Amino acid sequence: MLKAGFISLGCAKNLVDTEVMLGLLATNQIKLTDNPQEADILIINTCSFIESAKEESITTILQMAEYKKQGNCKCLIVAGCLGQRYQQDLLDELPEVDAIVGTGDWHRIMEAINSTMNDKKRVLLVGETNTIYDETMPRINTTPFYSAYVKVAEGCSNCCSYCVIPKVRGSFRSRKMESIVAEVKNLVANGVKEVNLIAQDTTSYGRDLYGAAKLTDLLKELVKIDGLMWIRLLYCYPKHFSDELIELIATESKICKYIDLPLQHANDIILKSMLRQDSRKDIENLLNTLRSKIPGITVRTSFIVGFPGETEAHFEDLRQFVMDQKFDRVGVFTYSQEEDTIAANLPNQVSDEVKQERYHNLMTLQCQISEQLNQELEGTVLDVLIEQVNTEPEIVVSGRSYREAPDVDGQIYVEKATNCRPGDVIKVKIVQGFTYDVVAEKL
Ligand code: SF4
Predict the structure, then answer these.
(1) Chain-wide mean pLDDT for the chain?
(2) What are the tens digits of pLDDT across the range 288-337?
(3) What domains are defined for the chain?
(4) Three-state SS across 246-268?
(5) Which pLDDT tens digit goes with each residue over 159-192?
(6) Could you read off the pLDDT of 37-78 as tens digits, one per residue?
(7) Are 150 and 198 in contact (CB under 8 A)?
(8) Cβ of 11 below 6 Å from ligand 1
(9) Residues 6+ away with beta carbon under 8 Å from 145
(10) pLDDT tops 90 at residue 391
(11) Is 433 near ligand 1, meaning CB less than 6 Å away?
(12) Which residue puts its alpha carbon closest to atom 8 of ligand 1?
């Protein structure tokens, strides 16, 4: 029996593609292994959205290529965004690679394996980016049994000037509502308590299929599923929030009062140059509405510093905005000049040194804000989904509340938590807040 090892880089959307490909391998009697040394087939599902992600992808490919010399590997496959973006160039420049599988071609993973293993042919399987998985595809979840990502749409039809994703993943296409509901029912029947809805622009869900955004209708169906505890919305686009959606988040207990809202900047000149659809005033109005209509809401956002043309004054504007808004969580990226994007050709590109300075400046500010907000939480009672239980040298239990998304946010460390298992939900009181994590005691 052939054995395959898989490495998934990049975002949760890529991870879902990985999980579907894992399902296809398993259906074809290929055994999965964690040990690259013993794998006959090695597959790297790559990321390419910024320079550091491309570097990580290439480094990982080269590391895995070593197993062609030192291990069992006879077939090295590059899937995902890097392959989609660089296609034949990548195949030409990396002779160790046997096949490239594009972002819309995950369903052809067995074709890639068969061409390499049986026909001894190197292949480029990069076609149209118009596919999306559905509930009938086999999928092996790699996340803990109580939590799963569910991709509600693929691709993006916004045209942010810095972003290559529409070219790499195609235009926005939603899954049918029945398909998503069927998948979530199935996940819940198998023990999932938390589903994290993802897309490049989750708030636009349904616009292409149904002629109008239908995220609210989808959520109304999902909350009916017995046994589902939390539904979390990630990757929301500010422009596409409706009053109805805000009302539903405010009133429906299964929908986490948590919004991931990448804003990218706060200065109007930079927002315009980024081709974002909201002005600073629009964003402030949305944040005010979210906070007044949804008490206790946690807001995560991300910003790009060092965008072309960003002056000290523009950056100071962003800094002041972060200071005023006091976001619960902020991710900061330095701008990456990506070919085939509008921003790559803009004048006044910012030096790496200034980008780094601004990155550290904003992160330092946010650390102070996060610590203060976490300290203000002391005394708050929350339900925590247990993720880890370590018993040596002493019991240390950690988990997440509705306020923490998996993989990107901090953890709640719980004292005096005996008899807990991963997947349990317990009530805790926060006793001490730190920059990223908080400490709580079990009630
Ligand atoms: S390029 Fe974008 S969509 Fe692709 S893996 Fe990276 S973050 Fe995800």
Answers:
(1) 97
(2) 999 999 999 999 999 999 999 999 999 999 999 999 999 999 999 999 99
(3) 3-125 (3.40.50.12160), 147-376 (3.80.30.20), 378-442 (2.40.50.140)
(4) HHHHHHCCCEEEEEECCCECCCH
(5) 999 999 999 999 999 999 999 999 999 999 999 9
(6) 999 999 999 999 999 999 999 999 999 999 999 999 999 999
(7) yes
(8) yes
(9) 190, 191, 192, 422, 423
(10) no
(11) no
(12) 11
Rounded CA-CA distance 17/105 in Å is: 10
Euclidean distance between CA atoms 183 and 150, whole angstroms: 8
| Residue 104 near ligand 1, beta carbon < 6 Å | no
Cβ–ligand 1 distance for 44 under 6 Å, the answer no
Sequence-distant (≥ 6) Cβ neighbours of residue 213 within 8 angstroms: 203, 204, 205, 206, 207, 240, 242
∠91-92-97 over CA atoms, to 5°? 40
Give residue-wise pLDDT tens across range 94-109. Answer: 999 999 999 999 999 9
- Whether 49 is in the pocket of ligand 1, judged by its Cβ within 6 Å, is yes
At 410, the amino acid letter reads: G
CB 95 within 8 A of CB 113: no
What contacts 175, CB < 8 A, 6 or more positions away?
132, 133, 134, 151, 152, 153
User: Could you tell me the sign of the dihedral formed by the alpha carbons of 350, 356, 358, 359, in that order?
Assistant: positive
Which residues share a beta bridge with 197?
A: 150, 233
- pLDDT tens digit string along 182-225? 999 999 999 999 999 999 999 999 999 999 999 999 999 999 99
Vertex 112, ends 107 and 114: CA angle to 5°? 115
Pocket test for ligand 1, best of 16, 55, 165 (most atoms within 8 A of CB): 165
Other Cβ atoms less than 10 A from the Cβ of 214: the count is: 19
Tokens of 257: 């009062």
Which residue would you say has higher pLDDT here, 129 or 385? 385
Q: Would the CB of 14 count as within 6 Å of ligand 1?
A: yes
Average pLDDT for 115-140: 94
Q: Whose CA is nearest to atom 1 of ligand 1?
A: 49
- State the closest ligand 1 atom to the C-alpha of 164, by its place in the atom list counted from 1: 1
Nearest-atom number in ligand 1 for the CA of 10 is 5
* Backbone phi, psi, residue 18, to 5°: -60, -45
Residue 443: per-residue pLDDT: 94
d(CA 71, CA 39): 8
